[in-house]
Amino acid sequence: MWHKTFAGFLSGVVVMILVPSILSLWLVAHINVILATSLVLALAAWAGVMTWCYGAESGKQAWQRAGILTIPTIIIFVITFFTAAGPTG
């Protein structure tokens, strides 16, 4: 049970933080609206990720489900960060 909890918690937090960050980097002109709405939607998404990980048969399956969401989110954020807001030297 704790494996499912940690998998859902960690992947949910990563998704909850990075998705609004990605959207704010893409749509800089509307950053106030994006951050306000994505805060509400991100909390709902976090609850969905937690529920999806709790629904797994085992801890291994919960971590696999967490990775399915977390790894693409991290990759998209890194690409977006270095293309939209990266170092400008």
Overview of the structural elements:
The protein has 89 residues and is mainly alpha-helical. The protein has 3 helices and no strands. Helices cover 84% and strands 0% of the residues. Helix 1 (2-26) runs antiparallel to helix 2 and helix 1 runs parallel beside helix 3 (59-84). The chain is elongated, with a radius of gyration of 15 Å. The N and C termini lie far apart (48 Å).
Which spans of ≥5 residues are poorly predicted at pLDDT below 50?
none
Nearest-angstrom radius of gyration? Answer: 15 Å
Query: N-to-C terminal Cα separation, in Å?
Result: 48 Å
Name the helix and strand elements from N-terminus to C-terminus, one letter apiece.
HHH
> For this entry, what is the oligomeric state of its chains?
single chain
What percentage of the residues does DSSP assign to strands (E)? under 5%
Shape designation = elongated
**Mean pLDDT over the full residue set:** 88
**Largest sheet geometry:** none
Summarize the structure.
Helices cover 84% and strands 0% of the residues. The protein has 89 residues and is mainly alpha-helical. The model has no long low-confidence stretch (mean pLDDT 88).
Descriptors for this entry?
89 residues, mainly alpha
Could you outline the blueprint of secondary structure elements for this entry?
Blueprint: H1 2-26, H2 31-54, H3 59-84
Helix pairs in contact: 1-2, 1-3, 2-3
